[in-house]
Amino acid sequence: MEQNVAAIIEAILFTMGESVPLQKLADALELDTDKTKQIIHQMMSDYEKDCRGIQIIELDGAYQMCTKKQMYEYLIKVASQPKKQVLTDVLLETLSIIAYKQPVTRVEIEKIRGVSSGHAVNKLVEYNLVCEIGRLDVPGRPLLFGTTEEFLRSFGVNSIDELPKPEPEQVEEFRQEAEEEIRLKV
Asked: pTM for this structure?
């Protein structure tokens, strides 16, 4: 039975092409989530041991089948080379603010950065690293932004909880640098 369940999970993840929440997989298999998760983690281990070109990754409580990074060079020999997204310092700064402060409005991002951030936010949405996740319940109903599963995949984390936490000393140093920059501009 477990071999058959693994084959079903493999078929679902392969066919869907995007991440599938654990609960949906468990419901389709008519199993509880703990048993389903156990089978998926065994499959993940098997893929790793068998020196396979594919893997199953976990993204914030959902699972996706994808190609291992070490296979990329072989893929581009067959397919046209995908356009590489270039994350400039401005985009990385904006993305960091969104990742750590989400949900966050464009105005809040601009307040932190001190400059207009519309272009940067739009580029991050275009790259599918950031998306609109709702609206703030205040006059004008500004858009709220948050990170996407593509962000998690790109940065190799399962959830935003795995992002590195800045040390209090670093935060204080950044604050002092920002205050110094403000003094120099005045």
From this structure: 0.61
